[in-house]
Structure formats: C-alpha cells, structure tokens
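Archive entry. Fields below.
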Amino acid sequence: MGYPHKSHPRETAVLSKHFGDPDARSLDGWKKRGGYRALEQALASQPAQLVDTVKQSGLRGRGGAGFPTGMKWSFMKPGDGKPHYLCCNADESEPGTFKDREIMRWTPHALVEGCAVGAYAIGAETAYIYIRGEFDEPIRRMEAAVAEAYAAGLLGANAMGSGKRVDVHVHKGAGAYICGEETALMNSLEGKRGNPRIKPPFPAVSGLFSQPTTINNVETLAAVPHILNNGAEWYKAMSLSNPKSTGTKLFSVCGNVARPGNYEVVMGFPFKDFLYDLCGGPPAGRKFKAIIPGGSSVPIQTMEEAEATLMDYEGFVAQGTQLGSGGVIIFDDAQSMPRMIARLARFYAHESCAQCTQCREGTAWTTKILERIVDGQGTFEDLDTLLSIAENMTGKTICVLSDSCAAPVVSGLQKFRHEFEALITGKRTSKVAVAGGAAFAGAATP
Amino acid sequence: MSAHGTAPYEAVFVGKRKADLDAILLRYPNKQAALLPALWIVQEVQGWVSEEGMAEVAKCLDLTPAYVKGVVTFYTMYHQHPVGKHFIQVCTTSPCLCAGADKVTEAFLKHTGCNELGVTSPDGKYTVIEVECLGACGFATPVQINADTIENVTADKVPQILAGLK
Ligand SMILES: Cc1cc2nc3c(=O)[nH]c(=O)nc-3n(C[C@H](O)[C@H](O)[C@H](O)COP(=O)(O)O)c2cc1C
Ligand code: SF4
Ligand code: FES
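PREDICTED_STRUCTURE:
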C-alpha cells in the first residue's frame, strides 16, 4: 500500500507495505501482520548471531552516510560490564526527507520492534528514540505504541518473558537540524545544547552518558526485523546492481513533480524510470531541470546525470552525487537555481551550531552573497568568492554541516553557472525574491 | 498563559505534573537528561518559557538557571516570550519554496493581520513565522499551527484554515 499515492507495481513494498492502513498501527494489528516474531526470535538467540545476520544482509545505514550496520553493531562489546545505549535517530530534518515520519505515523510498532532487537544485539538495555519536536503526530503514535508494548510485556524487565531487560523510550527534540548529527543528538539527549562533539572518542567507545552507544536511523532499524524474519539472503537478493547495496530503500520525492510522496524500490533501480514512471514525471506543461537526490546536503545533478543513475550508494556517486538520506528534490524549468540554492544556504546558516569559524562565517557569507546575486546586486568576483569560501568550508570542521552547505553551492555553480551570470549581467525580467519578510517581490524566472 | 511580568508565577511542577516529571526521570541515569522534557511541560502549561519557568526547572533538576537558559536559547521551539494563541509556522525551505511556500506565507500575513513575520497580531490571536524544513516536503506547503501540521496548504486555502481555528 502506498501513501499518499497507491503503490506502483514496480515498487517493492517492505517497509511501506502498510503505509496508509490505520489498522497496522495497533499492537493487535501489527501482530496480525507478523509483528514481534522477530523480537521473540532475537531474544532467544545470542547477540553475536544477530549482528552476524545483519552483517550478512549487507544492510547499510539509511541516515545519510551508508555505513554498514552490522559492522557498526560489531564495535559494541556486550558483556564489558558497562551500560550500553541505542539511540534511534528520528530527527529527520534534512530538507527533502520525510520517510521516517511515515514509518512512525503508520507502522510505529515496526520501529519499536527494530529498536528492541537492535538494543539487544548491541548489549544495551535501553534504547532512546529521539524524535524532532515538530513531529507531533509521529511522537504521539510512537508513545502510544511504546505504551502498548510495555502493557503487553513485550518491553521492560522481562521482555517477552525472556528474562532480559529491554527498555524503549521516546525523547522529544525541540527544534534544531543539527541534533540529527549523531554526537549532537547525544548531547541534546543529555540535556545540553546540541553541539556536535569532536571525534574520537567514537560513540561505540564513549557515547551517550559517556557509555558505549550506537546511533541508527529509523529506516535502518525498521528494516532489521524483516531481515531476521526472511533471512539475510532474501535481503541481499533485493538488488539490481551490486552486492554493496542491498535491500529496499525508501525515497522521499518532493518539489516540482506530478506525484510527490514516498516510494520504496530495490537498490539499483533505474532513476530515469523512477522519475518518469513511478513519480509521474514533471508537473503538466513543465520539464525537469535539476535534481538533488539525497537530501539537500548532496551535490545537485543535471537531468543528464540523473537519467543515467542507478539508485544505489555507488550509482549516485558514479553520477556526481550521493544517495544520502534518499530525499529526492526536483526543480523544474520554471525555477531559478540561484534562488533555490540561496534559500538552501540560508537553511544551513540558520542551522549552524556556530562552534566552528569556517561554518559559522562560511554559511553566513555564502547566504549573504547568494542573496545579493539573486537580488541583482552581484558581481562576477562574487562567484569566485563563493567557491573559495566553499573550499574553506569543506573538510575542516567538527561535523559535516559545513560541507553540506558547500555541496549545493559548488555543484550549482558548476552546472548552472549561466543562471548566476544572467542575474549578474542583468538579463532578467523581474525582481527575484529569496525568502524572508521582503520575499514577495515577484516571479522567480531568471 | 501568564501575562508578561504581571501575574505572580505559579509553579508548574506540583501535584500531577510533579508526578509526571518523576516518572520521566526514571527513564534516564541522571536528572539533567530530563531537561528538554521538563521545559516542554513548562511551555505546555504556560504557553512559553519564562525566566521564572527556567528557574523552576533548574531547581527541580539541580541545575543553575543560567545553564538552563543556555540550553533554552539553543532550541528554536521554546518560546522565550509569549506568542499569539495560534502560532503559525510556514515552511519556506527550497523544496517548499519551489512549490509556492512564499505565496502561502504572504496569505497568512495578510489574512491574520500580522503583516510582518514574528509579530503578533493586534488581537493577540496570531503569530506567523517562517520555519525551516518540517520534514513533510512531499506535502508542500506544510504549515504547523501550534502542534498540528496541515499538509498541502495553498494560498487560496488560508482564509478557510484560519476560520477553522478555535
Ligand atoms: C548535520 C547532520 C544532520 C543529520 N541529520 C540526520 C537525521 O536527521 N537523521 C538521521 O538518521 N541521520 C542524520 N545524520 C546522520 C547521523 O549523524 C548518523 O550518521 C546516522 O543517524 C547513523 O544512522 P545509520 O547508520 O542508521 O545511517 C545527520 C548528520 C549530520 C552531519
Ligand atoms: S560544522 Fe557547523 S554545525 Fe558542525 S560543529 Fe561546526 S559549527 Fe557546528
Ligand atoms: S522543505 Fe518544507 S517540509 Fe521539508
């Protein structure tokens, strides 16, 4: 079942199978759909076995970086006498991404189960689900599911009668994109400002409350029960491309497109078919112009690059970008790329935690210069300045928010330079607005 | 909502709310971790987080008021001053902007009488702000009014949405 569109025959609905079906939300409904079999099986096995199965499946983190999940789990050493923690990252604030939201809204028990299995596998008795504060409905759904699971004895001191303790708690954030960065998330959970930490130490050594910790994305954890139920080989077989990218992936599609929404396809699916067949192509009378395929932090693709892409970790890299979080942002030929990129820069400037000079100054100046260009006040030197600022912002900071701001700017200037130049030379018809109180000056066509 | 500085401060963490906080504290190995949840309770009860609210939270969690303020100011969702009864947040990040979020913002400013972003309307009913990505980009333009997210808002739907607010 799809949401908000009907499932397309070429989708492979594993995680999204019950999206749009309210009956799947309750514990009874979830059990009827095969829920909690995986947890029962997990609690009867050794943690090392579970880690091994996840390793075999090839599952990689769906939060953005694509780190192999089984390997991440193997860094934790159950039985070292320390409390361990699992953090589920449900901060989902990357522009273009809204898949974790639907997992939590429609199948909250899938995530409770994934967290419980994950916690047990890494030797943790406690899992925290850190959900962004704006997600009111997902928070309510998750809290209700957690309460149901406790009431039924699936969680707690004697989870499913196994004699093992597994606690899962929902923790509500309070508005800050940076808290999706894993070390910032841990600081925020500890009741601090959400500043990222310098690594090392890595979370597996000293994470939440200075104890060994694993952080996983919602979609990553929700996939784990399916892997236990159906086997690592089943998961691995879901790939049209290569053995390094396996399973299904949820792609959130937004912007100028006929059918926005979440689509679940197997790794290696042809992006061209995805865009024109599944998502219905551009809005009537328009053409696609540019795509940011992995959330706003990855390089922008031209349509030529996008149409040649196979949708997996390596496939996006081969076409100049990254899979990232799977948030596909589409701009059509009516949009001004400088305007869109300037607004993204403003996002990063707003969300920078301001610890690092390159990021604090770089995001602010990038925004200022881009808005000046969009406003018709830019110069050709500004374009060079933007690139040199971007260079200073890349690979030099505590976390990669700074790099993320540079990515759309550099790729935008490479691939759509003529649009910036047209604004500078004044070959435009109307005043272009970016955002903010004075943003309503006119149309966006350069 | 307690008015700015006039009414005497009424403690939040008494009776049932004290019990709620105690239950929350059980989830964490130390008191400080309950800071965000405690601040949420203050905002729920009082509509915003005042200096007195911060001081009360600090006392409950064995922190200093200055520390609590440092945390409050980091997060965008805690109001540090009273806001309109209906706090309206329109996402205008690029994925929504390309789908017309600027027109939606404009319509809210006009029909609420706020006219300016961040300024509460003269009748105290509305405050409109722009917000960064709400995580609902496929439903452009999402608008959050207090806790509720409304999907697929277009400028022409704004008067009807405002009329439906209680
Ligand atoms: C600025 C920034 C924001 C991030 N936001 C998120 C987020 O909202 N959700 C998420 O799962 N990961 C986010 N990440 C990635 C996390 O740091 C981390 O890699 C991820 O949660 C690990 O889970 P995974 O291995 O399952 O992918 C963000 C990273 C950065 C640098
Ligand atoms: S790169 Fe930016 S967001 Fe990341 S720690 Fe440094 S200042 Fe903060
Ligand atoms: S960009 Fe508007 S909700 Fe994501």
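CURATOR_NOTE: The pocket of iron/sulfur cluster (ligand 2) is lined by residues A 178, 196, 352-356, 359-360, 397-399, 401-402 (CB under 6 Å).
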